[in-house]
Design a protein that fits this description.
alpha/beta, Rossmann fold, 2 domains, 4-stranded antiparallel beta sheet, 41% helix, 20% strand, globular, ATP binding
């Protein structure tokens, strides 16, 4: 995915994107990071053609995006968006109907639709919910169904808008594990978030946004050890970076910063990370 000098403004509002230049490489877990109002969701909507730039252009796999029905239909089979609020995405009566909606619109045979639905539900670990009414599900279950409905389209990439928003800690951890699983299955994963701890522990590549612009991009350590950038972006350092700074000052940690608590414990147990 590549955006070249992309501008976008909602009707009657100021510019939400202001000359965004961005290239996302295959094979990396990407986090679009920034405070509320930075333009993260607007950017994601350009990734699947829900919004068309007022200026600039979007490219996918080297081809300039055309905003025709045929092009968008093909594109949205390759890139799937999971909305922040699953209630904004779900509308069918039962889980099976919800997950089957996309494949049915592709004109697939009934057996193929059923196979895709069952595989998506199995991948998400929610086989037992397939005949449940969607409106009776918990918020976390709805999130999983929303992801399954995107998986049933068999996309190459999944884009998550604030994936852990409104989830309790356990449900958040389960969702992050699921995104890791999808990545291991060969799916490209892109998330937008204002959660610096999630971005630091999960992503291979981070894009920092503020006021509709890309301030910086790089690997997690490059981003979160840049004090000037952290101050300019209005973000905070992740907890693990704060802990790493403290341990390094006291000579208790050598080498790279831990990405999560498990890595921290391993480093300390191996005598300061040697």
């Amino acid at each position: 995915m590549e955006l070249i000098d992309v501008y976008y403004a909602y009707p009657g509002s100021v510019w939400a994107l202001k000359g965004v230049n961005l290239r996302l490489e295959k094979g990396k877990k990407v986090a679009i990071l920034g405070p509320n109002g930075a333009g993260k969701s607007t950017l994601l909507f350009h990734f699947i053609g829900l919004l068309k730039p007022k200026k600039g252009a979007v490219y996918y796999e080297g081809s300039k995006v055309e905003y025709t029905k045929a092009f968008l239909k093909t594109w949205r089979q390759k890139v799937g968006l999971v909305f922040q609020d699953p209630d904004a995405q779900m509308f069918a009566g039962s889980v099976f109907q919800e997950v089957s909606f996309g494949p049915m619109n592709l004109g697939l045979q009934e057996d193929e639709v059923r196979n895709r639905v069952l595989k998506a539900l199995e991948t998400m670990g929610i086989d037992e919910l397939k005949y449940r009414p969607a409106h009776f599900l918990s918020y976390g279950q709805k999130k999983k169904v929303a992801i399954a409905s995107v998986l049933a389209m068999n996309p190459d990439a999944l884009v998550f808008d604030e994936p852990t928003a409104y989830l309790d800690p356990r449900s958040s951890a389960e969702l992050v594990e699921m995104m890791e699983k999808l990545y291991r299955l060969g799916k490209q994963i892109v998330i937008s978030t204002h959660d610096v701890d999630l971005a630091f522990s999960f992503a291979d590549w981070i894009v920092v946004m503020k006021d509709g612009k890309v301030l910086a991009q790089g690997n997690p350590l490059e981003i979160f050890t840049d004090d000037e950038l952290i101050g300019e972006s209005g973000l905070e350092k992740p907890f693990m970076v704060k802990i790493g700074d403290l341990l390094k000052k006291r000579g208790l940690l050598k080498g790279s910063f831990p990405r999560d608590f498990k890595q921290l414990a391993s480093m300390l147990e191996s005598d300061g990370g040697d």
